Amino acid sequence: MKIWKQTAREMAVIILAACVTGTVLNLVLPGGYVFVSKETVSYRKISMISADEARLKYDGRTALFIDARDPAEYEQARIPGSVSIPAEPESISLQGIRANFDLLQGPRELVIYCSASSCESSETLARRFIHMGYSRTLYIIEGGLPAWQERKFPLETARDRRGD
Asked: How far apart are alpha carbons 118 and 130 in whole angstroms?
């Protein structure tokens, strides 16, 4: 019986110490402890990169570029070798992911782009990849295709494909 009382006392001290430590840390740290969901942690695999960093991946052939824009925009201008998987509507996006599944699971990193820096399509598509089980880091070009174009990086246009 004596050993149970001692164990209960030790447990109470440990719990009290943990509560005090947690309270002090929440007072000292600016944002305190923030509890995050498993989903939020997995979204940390989404990394923003500059057009220059994307170009290094392009030149090194280490990345597969994914165009998250509307198919009509993709037909007008795109990064050569990129794959069109529109972020919206979701049904079309999921079809694109399924159709390119083997390619997406290949050894190359995925770099996603859309039509501007304020475009949310890239992040929407990246989150969709993660939700479907993609476990590696996903890269998004900051500034989208316009940032790529501003630096006069390789671009394939509808006119190029027509041979004008």
From this structure: 21
Provide CB contacts within 8 A for 114, sequence distance 6+. 67, 68, 69, 87, 120, 121, 122, 144, 145
The pLDDT value given to residue 51: 96
DSSP reduced 3-state for 125:
helix
Q: Are residues 75 and 2 in the same domain?
A: no
Instruction: Show Cβ contacts of residue 26 under 8 Å, excluding neighbours closer than 6 positions.
Output: 32, 33
Per the listing, tokens 């430590």 go with: 21
At 16-58, the pLDDT tens digits run 999 888 888 777 777 766 666 655 556 678 999 999 999 999 9
Burial class of residue 84, CB neighbours in 10 A (0-12, 13-18, 19+): middle
pTM (2 decimals)? 0.73
Alpha helices in 67-131 (DSSP H): 71-76, 90-99, 101-104, 121-131
Domain of residue 7, residue span: 1-35
Q: Token pair of 46, please?
A: 């989404």
121 lies in the same domain as 132: yes
Number of domains the chain is built from:
2
**Tokens standing for residue 30:** 């600016």
